[in-house]
């Protein structure tokens, strides 16, 4: 069974981002980039399934600029077998990414696609669900546990009220939540090995996909800052302030 | 211009998030319909019909929608939307709405606009990106606007309406994903998303036993909902649905008490729009103090019991 894992190159989660002065977007020059954390979890899960003998091949796919190659190499260092880069400088929105991924799925015929639930830059939380729709496949979003059978998969999902377990026929789309696993660190030998693994590059046009954005960003601004509060000396003062100043008790 | 709101409900009643979504819809126009997909969902339909401003409630009451699975509900929505020509389709940005709505958008070949916090015009919306550290104003060129709504950004709709309720035909049942189990957190406390006061604990609690022993009496006194940081959930102190943050629940209560939480940006993303924030942390440098209205630098194990006694 082949597993496809779409991964996105995003600003590292530790970076405190800055909005550009001309309000055109967020400053990305000289900012540390990394694999979207949910996608690391997706790669880890796919690699574990391979290590458990449940999958035969793990293919990582990324859509975006040339530097996404680095992100694909990271996925291969975790254990993906090969990478596919859909190279473009275009502003890619989730619907366009889902269409590109659909075209790759049509070519590669995986039985399972594992994506992150959300990219931590656009916070869209859409691509996996859109891909499942375009493929006409079942979906299990926000997974915290995945158990693979021969023709089906059982997925426990994190939902607002607690947990929900779904059984899905394969092929299927899964998106990862934080508790699914703890991704390993890539070791130096594996990083070296990853450099020799195959990485194919193609363009959106090769896949016949129109990636024109449907949403135009008119401006990007900083949110209103909270004004600095006060430090209270003790519990008595805290209660007094909450009652008489904030009036929330 | 007719606007459709996809209700989140438990068949018998509406979830609070639906009420905020209706308010967002009413900012777009006055012709607002609500769709209920469920099984034996008459109670939810009647509740929707009573909301002020709702003109019509469409109900698909049939077995395929009993579990509100994404594939069946999305297929129904696409049929309904194509047949009725809505200008906007809205759902709450909860795990329910996030699961289903992108599927609908893709089948309609339109973009989804996720978690809007403001409406500038019929095609222009504000939404947070990068864990709320930036606000983007985006304009949609699609014929139908498919939108999830950040519930904390819109008030709850009020009662006082008397919309007509119309039964609609169900689609064929797709044999795709099937719910085989649910483990829902049972609690007599208010829902996190709708609570006026939230008591939230982090890694500083040290264990699940401590979390319960120290924070529950405080939540009881305040009639509060209980939340947590990711670290507390990952460590198994509390269930996943307690997580507040960028990738958990977004809350904005009147009062948020962060206890033993450092205040990572991912956590702040979920609670920094609370009206009043209190932080209790023994580390004076903890970033939570930068957003707290009242900060108490102290050991939580001494302070929280004192607070319970003082209330
Ligand atoms: C992709 C991604 C998504 C994430 N999403 C979320 C999210 O949605 N929500 C979220 O919360 N986090 C999220 N995180 C994690 C986030 O980055 C932080 O790791 C997390 O919020 C830290 O939790 P904490 O504050 O409880 O723990 P810590 O950062 O370890 O802080 C514990 C605090 O407790 C204090 N403390 C310890 N003992 C005591 C005591 N006795 N008395 C008083 N104070 C004490 C310490 O001084 C410290 O400040 C995410 C991270 C990633 C990478
Ligand atoms: N440009 C991209 N290339 C590859 N995968 C992507 C890309 N954008 C999004 N994804 C995948 O879709 C998931 C959800 O992203 P989003 O819908 O943007 O929040 C991510 O976690 C990735 O798995």
Question: Mind sketching the topology for me?
Answer:
The complex is a heterodimer of chains A (249) and B (311).
Chain A: E1 2-6, E2 9-11, E3 33-35, H1 37-51, E4 57-64, H2 68-78, E5 82-87, H3 94-108, E6 112-116, H4 127-135, E7 139-148, E8 152-159, E9 162-169, E10 172-176, H5 188-194, E11 199-202, E12 215-221, E13 230-231, H6 235-245
Parallel strand pairs in A: 1-4, 1-6, 4-5, 5-11, 6-10, 7-10
Antiparallel strand pairs in A: 2-3, 7-8, 8-9
Helix pairs in contact in A: 2-5, 3-4
Chain B: E1 3-6, H1 16-28, E2 32-38, H2 42-49, E3 54-61, H3 70-84, E4 88-92, H4 95-108, E5 112-116, E6 118-121, E7 124-129, E8 134-140, E9 145-149, E10 164-167, E11 178-184, E12 197-201, H5 208-222, E13 225-228, H6 230-234, E14 255-259, H7 265-271, E15 276-281, E16 294-297, H8 300-310
Parallel strand pairs in B: 1-2, 1-4, 2-3, 3-10, 4-9, 5-9, 12-13, 12-14, 14-15, 15-16
Antiparallel strand pairs in B: 6-7, 7-8
Helix pairs in contact in B: 3-4, 5-8
The structure holds flavin-adenine dinucleotide and adenosine monophosphate (AMP).
Flavin-adenine dinucleotide sits between chains B (202-204, 229-232, 243-248, 260-262, 264, 266-267, 270, 281-283, 286, 299-301) and A (13, 37, 120).
């Amino acid at each position: 069974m082949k597993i496809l894992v779409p991964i996105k190159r995003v600003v590292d989660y530790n970076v405190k981002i800055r909005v550009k002065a001309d309000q055109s977007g967020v400053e990305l020059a000289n900012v540390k980039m990394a694999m979207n954390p949910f996608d690391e979890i997706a790669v880890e899960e796919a690699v574990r399934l391979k290590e458990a003998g449940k999958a035969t091949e793990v293919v990582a796919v990324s859509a975006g600029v040339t530097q996404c190659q680095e992100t694909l190499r990271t996925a291969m260092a975790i254990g993906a077998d090969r990478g596919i880069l859909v190279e473009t400088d275009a502003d890619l929105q989730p619907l366009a990414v889902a269409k590109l991924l659909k075209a790759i799925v049509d070519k590669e015929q995986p039985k399972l696609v594992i994506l992150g639930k959300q990219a931590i830059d656009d916070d869209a939380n859409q691509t996996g669900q859109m891909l499942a729709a375009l493929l006409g496949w079942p979906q299990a979003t926000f997974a915290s546990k995945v158990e693979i059978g021969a023709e089906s998969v059982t997925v426990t999902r994190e939902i607002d009220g607690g947990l929900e377990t779904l059984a899905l026929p394969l092929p299927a789309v899964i998106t990862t939540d934080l508790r699914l696993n703890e991704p390993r660190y890539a070791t130096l030998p594996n990083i070296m090995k990853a450099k020799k693994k195959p990485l194919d590059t193609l363009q959106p046009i090769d896949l016949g996909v129109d990636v024109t954005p449907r949403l135009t960003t008119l401006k990007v601004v900083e949110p209103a800052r909270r004004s600095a509060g006060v430090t209270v000396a003790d519990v008595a003062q805290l209660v007094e302030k909450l009652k008489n100043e904030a009036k929330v008790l | 211009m007719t606007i459709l709101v996809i209700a989140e409900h438990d068949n018998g009643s509406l979830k609070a998030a639906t009420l905020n979504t209706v308010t967002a819809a009413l900012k777009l126009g006055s012709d607002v319909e609500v769709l209920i997909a469920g099984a034996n969902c008459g109670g939810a339909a009647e509740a929707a019909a009573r909301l002020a401003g709702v003109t019509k409630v469409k109900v698909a009451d049939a077995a395929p929608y009993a579990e509100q699975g994404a594939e069946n509900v999305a297929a129904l929505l696409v049929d309904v939307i194509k047949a009725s020509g809505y200008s906007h389709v809205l759902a709450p940005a909860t795990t329910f709405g996030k699961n289903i709505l992108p599927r609908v958008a893709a089948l309609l070949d339109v973009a989804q606009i996720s978690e809007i916090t403001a409406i500038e015009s019929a095609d222009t919306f504000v939404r947070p990106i990068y864990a709320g550290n930036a606000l983007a104003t985006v304009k949609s060129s699609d014929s139908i606007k498919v939108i999830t709504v950040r519930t904390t950004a819109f008030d709850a709709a009020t009662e006082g309406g008397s919309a007509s309720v119309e039964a609609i035909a169900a689609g064929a049942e797709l044999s795709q994903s099937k719910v085989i189990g649910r483990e829902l957190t049972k609690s007599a406390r208010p829902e996190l998303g709708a609570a006026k006061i939230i008591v939230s604990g982090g890694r500083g609690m040290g264990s699940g036993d401590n979390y319960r022993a120290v924070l529950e009496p405080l939540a009881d006194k305040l009639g509060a909902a209980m939340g947590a940081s990711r670290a507390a959930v990952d460590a198994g102190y509390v269930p996943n649905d307690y997580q507040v943050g960028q990738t958990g629940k977004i809350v904005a209560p009147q009062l948020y008490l962060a206890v033993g939480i450092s205040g990572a940006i991912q956590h702040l993303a979920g609670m920094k729009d609370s009206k009043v924030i209190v932080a209790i942390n023994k580390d004076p440098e903890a970033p939570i103090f930068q957003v707290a209205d009242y900060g108490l630098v102290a050991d939580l194990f001494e302070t929280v019991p004192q607070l319970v006694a003082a209330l």
